[in-house]
Amino acid sequence: MPLVRYRKVVILGYRSVGKTSLAHQFVEGEFLEGYDPTVENTYSKIVTLGKDEFHLHLVDTAGQDEYSILPYSFIIGVHGYVLVYSVTSLHSFQVIESLYQKLHEGHGKTRLPVVLVGNKADLSPDREVQAVEGKKLAESWGATFMESSARDKQLTQGIFTKVIQEIARVENSYGQERRCHLM
Ligand SMILES: Nc1nc2c(ncn2[C@@H]2O[C@H](COP(=O)(O)OP(=O)(O)OP(=O)(O)O)[C@@H](O)[C@H]2O)c(=O)[nH]1
């Protein structure tokens, strides 16, 4: 029987960027048209990647802004992050930079498993953030970047698959660093 590994992932970002819609699309397989601000919600899903099985515990948070203080529950015991902005809102992109800095400090400036998501890419005519800007920001963090639309099942699935892979990648890089120190 395969080992089921537990992974806790927190979804953060400014209000109305599509955090709930992405989580709901991933877990329930449908797009939510209406907007109902989230307080905090959790989702669970078993994800199979190759021979490995993961129990993915998702925390969908209330929208944050640059003044938000992130609680310890967003730091302690969290394996990875999905940071979401909307490509139609430059402000949501600016907020994501400040949220990342808070997380980075909260984790003692260690490397973080992060997938940066430019959501609402289906609304491209209203775009305020170009893909190249998202890519550059993610690269500066050593993170992965994706554009998505919560309307698209496959793109959404790709985000959560990617964050599980990012967690493994960062964990392995620590293993390698430790081996180097011993030598
Ligand atoms: N066109 C389009 N609309 C989207 C997309 N994702 C979300 N929306 C819409 O944007 C609105 C806000 O989506 P939510 O998922 O509630 O956003 P949220 O980030 O969870 O919002 P908060 O709870 O306030 O933090 C809803 O009306 C969604 O239908 C997307 O990819 N494309």
Which SSEs are present, and which pair or pack?
Blueprint: E1 4-13, H1 19-28, E2 40-49, E3 52-61, E4 80-86, H2 90-106, E5 114-119, H3 131-141, E6 144-147, H4 153-182
Parallel strand pairs: 1-3, 1-4, 4-5, 5-6
Antiparallel strand pairs: 2-3
Bound molecules: guanosine-5'-triphosphate.
Guanosine-5'-triphosphate is lined by residues 13, 15-21, 32-35, 37-38, 62-63, 119-120, 122-123, 149-151.
What is the percentage of strand-forming residues?
Answer: 25-35%
Count the DSSP helices: 4
CATH architecture annotation name? 3-Layer(aba) Sandwich
Major sheet description: 6 strands, mixed
Number of strands: 6
Q: Average pLDDT across residues?
A: 93
Catalytic activity: GTP + H2O = GDP + phosphate + H(+)
Function: Binds GTP and exhibits intrinsic GTPase activity. May activate NF-kappa-B-mediated gene transcription. Promotes signal transduction through MTOR, activates RPS6KB1, and is a downstream target of the small GTPase-activating proteins TSC1 and TSC2.
GO molecular function, one term: metal ion binding
Protein name: GTPase RhebL1
